[in-house]
Specification:
The protein has 176 residues and is of the alpha/beta class. It is built from four helices and seven strands. It has a three-stranded parallel sheet with strand order 2-1-3. It has a two-stranded antiparallel sheet with strand order 4-5. A two-stranded antiparallel sheet has the order 6-7. Strand 4 and strand 5 form a beta hairpin. The protein is globular, with a radius of gyration of 17 Å. The two termini are 20 Å apart.
Length: 176
Amino acid sequence: MEVHFFGKDTLFWFPLGTVLRAMGGIPLDRANPGSSVEQAARGFRVADSYYFAMAPEGTRRHKPYWKTGFYRIALAAGVPVVLAFFDYERRRLGVGPAIDLSGDPERDLERIREFYDSNARPKHGGKMAPVAFDPEARISSQRDVKDSTGETSYAENGRGNSPDQASPTDLPPPDQ
């Protein structure tokens, strides 16, 4: 299984960048965070099989809420979010259900919150962000995204491109 992940672009220097890319790493341009959603969604559109892992907090530092990137990527690509957990108290880790997002962030976060409340117990609970988005965050409930050509790609067939649109080979390759 080939898994992809974001890493800050400053980590992708030679030779480390070559190793990170070979492991599925995608440089994240933190100066242009909106591009990361489109870049990850494009990966789902062009590949027959694509797994993308990310921490919903989007950082190693404590934050009072989750970042919205994972949610926006899943909506844009028309793919489910698969939950995974570390349960430090019971010394176990696992993968939970695949959740098809409704586009209603509060309803979707409630389902996610219920899963983590019953499965995950962190080592340092006070450092874990609550399952919530920043109240100031704006999330589009539409399941479409503009690709770099300006075309809208709809999430109708689970890969992000509707049957009447260009084939995945007509899309530009992800930035390297």
